[in-house]
């Protein structure tokens, strides 16, 4: 499969893209089959909202049940601070992907890279090492578990609507990650499969031993 990115890649992305191509050739020689599990970014945004909606509603029901809101007032400086914290949380989200994968990757943090897709103003984190299924899954979900659900729990215990609104946004922002994990879970599990984060698309590349068509126990 030749790499065919739908957008212009930065030099570092180009290098990762070529590395994937080489890895792909090597793995095929060793008898692996390549499966790309990627999601279309635009389509993913819509699906992400649908997937996260039950979580958003559940968190809101709990928050407002425990913290009846008497007044809604936010100052201009409060709004600016809110925006600033939101940007910090977005960066933290990627950092947590990197931290979780980096702790488990064979090459550690050397395997972790960050970047920004400027056309979409989307920061991302990628891991160039192959991971086990549960490792990829954990690293994929961790930012939303901590900054979404963890922050929502903190905001609820503090009765802070300000913080809660940010937690809800972080849950929503985890939609793409959840979508990818869902796609991965729906793909039949094969023993001996290696999971690579896709270097320039939303999703992952799985190399599975060809001929291992029986699902792993
Ligand atoms: Zn993410």
A few lines on this structure:
The protein is of the alpha+beta class and 217 residues long. The chain has six helices and five strands; from the N terminus they run αβααββαααββ. The longest helix has 29 residues.
Describe this structure in words.
The protein is an alpha+beta fold. The chain has one domain (32-65, 75-209). The protein is built from six helices and five strands. The chain has helices at 11-29, 41-66, 76-104, 133-158, 161-173, 175-186; strands at 32-39, 112-117, 122-127, 194-197, 202-209. Strands 1-5-4 form a three-stranded antiparallel sheet, with helices on both faces. A two-stranded antiparallel ribbon has the order 2-3. Strand 4 (194-197) and strand 5 (202-209) form a beta hairpin. It is elongated, with a radius of gyration of 19 Å. The model has no long low-confidence stretch (mean pLDDT 90). Bound molecules: zinc ion (ZN). Zinc ion (ZN) is lined by residues 93, 97, 143, 177. Residues 93, 97, 143, 177 line the site of zinc ion.
């Amino acid at each position: 499969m030749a790499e065919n990115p739908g957008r212009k890649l930065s030099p570092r992305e180009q290098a990762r893209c070529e590395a994937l191509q080489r890895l792909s050739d090597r793995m095929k020689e060793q008898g692996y089959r390549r499966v790309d599990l990627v999601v279309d970014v635009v389509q993913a945004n819509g699906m992400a909202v649908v997937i996260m909606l039950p979580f958003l509603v559940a968190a809101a029901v709990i928050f407002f049940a425990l913290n009846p809101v008497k007044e809604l007032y936010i100052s201009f400086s409060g709004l600016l601070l809110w925006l600033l914290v939101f940007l910090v949380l977005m960066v933290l989200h990627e950092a947590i992907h990197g931290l979780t994968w980096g702790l488990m990757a064979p090459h550690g943090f050397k395997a972790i890279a960050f970047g920004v897709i400027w056309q979409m103003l989307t920061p991302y984190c990628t891991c160039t090492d192959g991971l086990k299924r549960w490792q990829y899954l954990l690293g994929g979900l961790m930012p939303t578990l901590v900054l979404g659900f963890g922050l929502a729990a903190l905001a609820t215990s503090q009765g802070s609507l300000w913080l809660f609104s940010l937690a809800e946004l972080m849950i929503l922002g985890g939609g793409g990650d959840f979508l990818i994990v869902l796609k991965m879970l729906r793909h039949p599990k094969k023993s001996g499969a290696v999971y690579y984060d896709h270097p320039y698309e939303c999703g992952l590349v799985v190399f599975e031993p060809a001929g291992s068509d029986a699902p792993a126990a």
